[in-house]
Design brief:
Layout: H1 12-15, H2 23-26, H3 29-44, E1 49-51, E2 61-66, E3 75-99, E4 102-120, E5 126-132, H4 133-146, H5 151-154, E6 162-163, H6 164-170
Antiparallel strand pairs: 1-2, 2-3, 3-4, 4-5, 4-6
The chain binds nickel (II) ion.
Nickel (II) ion (NI) binds next to helix 4.
């Protein structure tokens, strides 16, 4: 079990973007260890997703796992190697996001309602996910990290930004 150090905004790794893994990297034991460590790190910090640039690596790799609860549907552990994301349809939905690289803050972020992601899984089998709702949101958030973007870049209006503690104490602002 390896907990990795998570880069916060301001660290160049967050803005650098990422490159596809090479064939040699795909077949390496190091990739399997890295995936295990990223999963451990995501769970340790109670994130629902983690992308490689957040652990200082310029690689197109992300892990996602959403525990069910709070009226939210869970997403089983999903490993995305070299993912490519496309929007499906034009519908945009607002929802709360946070990020392990921007600790303690939450903000309302517009995202495509439905997306399709093509990637390899950790066994290097091709994977296609088409989904809507919170899973689609997390997929967009993590794929953005691979292009050096964070959720705040996508916010239309920064007035919803709140610390998590205040959000829990005072609830969402009226404009949600
Ligand atoms: Ni994030």
């Amino acid at each position: 079990m390896g907990i990795l150090k998570v880069a916060r905004i301001g660290h160049p790794a967050i803005r650098r973007g990422a490159r596809a893994l090479t064939d040699e990297e795909l077949r390496s034991d190091a990739l399997q260890r890295l995936i295990d460590d990223m999963v451990d790190t995501m769970k340790e910090y109670e994130g629902v997703g983690l992308a490689a640039p957040q652990v200082h690596l310029e690689l197109r790799l992300a892990v996602i796992e959403v525990p069910a609860g709070d009226g939210r549907e869970g997403v089983p552990l999903t490993v995305l190697v070299n993912p490519e994301l496309e929007r499906v349809g034009k519908e945009i939905v607002d929802g709360w996001e946070g990020c392990l690289s921007i600790p303690d803050l939450r903000g309302i972020t517009p995202r495509a309602k439905r997306v399709r992601v093509k990637a390899l899984d950790r066994e290097l089998k091709p994977l296609t996910i088409e989904t809507a709702g919170f899973f689609a949101r997390v997929l967009q958030h993590e794929c953005d990290h691979l292009d050096g973007r964070v959720y705040m870049d996508r916010m239309r209006d920064l007035s919803s930004l709140t610390y998590l503690q205040e959000l829990e104490r005072y609830g969402p602002s009226d404009d949600e």
